[in-house]
Amino acid sequence: MGVIYLESRDDESGMLAVGADLVLGFWDDAMEFEIGFRPTWMPDQEYGKDDYGGWLQFTSHVGLAINWQPMVLNYRFQHTSNGSMYDANPGLNLHMVGMGYRF
User: Fold this and answer.
1) Which of the residue ranges 7-11, 30-34, 92-96 would you say has the lowest mean pLDDT?
2) Which of 24, 36, 82, 93 has CA atoms 20 to 30 A from the CA of 45?
3) For residues 75-95, b (16+ Cβ closer than 10 Å) or e, as one string?
């Protein structure tokens, strides 16, 4: 499950995504590759100047994580669109970088 908060100069919105990820570990899990897909609820279909067509969207992502126990550094490319279910389908692409600590 994921929650995304979107904010621009004139607008704010959010999305809720629920789905599954496949994570493959390499080199004794020092590196992980992940891929995932999630149906996504976008309550406000208009965000800023973009009209995303409707409330149902689909989010897919691929990512890579490097583990330095207990620290982790990761990158994810994420794409959200409605799969052409609606007339408008601009899509939303996000590049995300993260750093974390595993307990």
Assistant:
1) 7-11
2) 36
3) ebebebbbeeebeeeeebeee
> For the chain, what is the domain count?
1
- Higher pLDDT residue, 65 or 15? 65
Cα dihedral value 100, 80, 42, 34, nearest 10: -30
Q: How far apart are CA 87 and CA 64, in angstroms?
A: 33
**pLDDT, tens digit (0-9, with 9 covering 90-100), for 71-83:** 999 999 999 999 8
Nearest by Cα to 89 from 49, 53, 40? 53
- Six-digit token string for 15: 């999305």
HSE on the CB side for 11, CA within 13 Å? 11
